[in-house]
Write a structure and sequence with these properties.
The structure holds 2 protein chains of 2 kinds. By secondary structure, chain A is mainly alpha-helical. Chain A contains 12 helices and 4 strands; from the N terminus they run αααααββαααββαααα. In chain A, the strands form 2 sheets. Chain A has a two-stranded antiparallel ribbon. A two-stranded antiparallel sheet of chain A has the order 3-4. In chain A, β1 (about 80) and β2 form a beta hairpin. Chain A starts with 7 loop residues before the first helix and ends with a helix. In chain A, about 35% of the residues are buried. By secondary structure, chain B is mainly α. Chain B has a single domain (about 25-120), classed as Cytochrome Bc1 Complex, Chain D, domain 2. Chain B has helices at about 1-45, 70, 75-85, 105-120. In chain B, α3 crosses α4 (about 105-120). The chains are: A mainly alpha, B mainly alpha.
Chain lengths: ~220, ~120
């Protein structure tokens, strides 16, 4: 934890983002091509942050970081056998440093410049629409089984993937669709399988995540 | 002449057997173990017993790969199919995803052999 604490104001001001934040994040690419490289990552790749995140969310999160992946970047490094099965070993998880508002604004602006995958994003067109929470959940859980690895509520779902009840707040809708459509196009060694999700279902997933995120806002 | 021919054939068989049971499989076994650790362990568990970190809210329990009784009734072809095409392809849970986009056919075949190591069993044994 202490090792992660550094002055991001200085980083932003002195242009040392690459040097300091790169201790945990891949800021330049290329993406991991082997499992060993994928396992070595301490934080999500940021070299395509501008294709992935909502800038306003980055600014907010960097000031008040909260864990998004319940079992860390690679769940295998943060679980241990328990009496009823594997459990998360919280002692192995490190927190992200919190930045000031000025620091967060500066860092987020720098990260949003990283857009190597405009081509993948340009292929996606999200149609306006909505879905009831009940129908969205049935689709997501019962028909596609995605809750196996993802939390759809703070207390419901799997742990090896990132939580999804905040996905629409965090992520650009085109990225959501593109990553589900072909996860390996973004990260060849990701633990996320390609389920060959059809276009209409992709749209429903995006709308469902929007419903979940609004509900999450109300809960807060 | 016949003896010489027999010797050559036997030698070739030995070389083939060595190649398929010692050299290439050692590398393949290691890669399959890594793939299991990266992709399968999240649901099937660090011990391979079906008690992975994700199972708390699942409607179906992941297969216990150490259970020789249940694993020995599934053929290698069935295991290959369920890994490649997912649980629904053999009328099992949708929670088991298709891994066709992640693994090559060769990697899936190696994973099937890894499952045989975990269960210490073969089909029909």
């Amino acid at each position: 934890m202490a090792a992660l604490v550094f002055s991001c104001v200085a980083i932003a001001e002195e242009g040392r983002l690459q040097k300091e934040c790169a201790s945990c994040h891949n800021l330049t690419g290329p993406v991991a091509q082997t499992l060993k490289d994928a396992w070595a990552r301490k934080g999500p790749d940021m070299f395509y942050a501008g294709n992935k995140y909502r800038q306003e969310w980055l600014v907010s999160w960097l000031q008040k970081p909260q864990r998004i992946r319940p079992a860390g970047m690679y769940y295998g490094d943060h679980i241990k056998p328990g009496p009823s099965g594997d459990v998360i070993d919280a002692a192995t998880l490190a927190d992200h440093v919190a930045l000031s508002k000025d620091e967060a604004v500066a860092i987020a602006a720098e990260l949003m410049k990283n857009k190597p995958h405009d081509d993948l994003i340009a292929r996606e067109k999200i149609e306006p629409g909505t879905i009831t929470k009940q129908m969205g959940e049935m689709n997501f859980d019962k028909f596609w089984g995605c809750m196996a690895c993802h939390l759809i509520e703070p207390e419901y779902g799997g742990f090896s993937g990132p939580e999804l009840y905040t996905a629409a707040k965090r992520l650009q809708p085109e990225f959501i669709a593109s990553f589900i459509r072909n996860p390996q196009a973004w990260e060849p060694k990701t633990w996320m399988p390609n389920k060959e999700v059809p276009e209409g279902v992709l749209q429903k997933f995006v709308h469902y995540f929007e419903v979940l995120s609004k509900e999450s806002d109300h809960a807060q | 002449m016949l003896n010489k021919l027999l010797f050559v054939v036997l030698l070739a068989c030995n070389v083939q057997a060595y190649a398929t049971t010692t050299e290439a499989p050692a590398h393949a076994r290691e890669a399959a173990a890594d793939n299991y650790k990266a992709y399968c362990m999240q649901c099937h568990g660090t011990q391979g017993n079906g008690k992975g970190v994700n199972i708390r809210d699942m409607s179906a329990t992941p297969r216990d790969h150490t259970d020789a009784k249940s694993m020995s009734v599934r053929s290698d072809e069935t295991l290959f199919k369920v890994i490649k095409e997912g649980g629904s392809s053999i009328s099992k849970s949708i929670l088991m995803p298709p891994w066709e986009g992640t693994f090559s056919d060769e990697e899936i075949r190696d994973l099937v052999q890894h499952l045989r190591v975990l269960c210490k069993c073969q089909f029909g044994s």
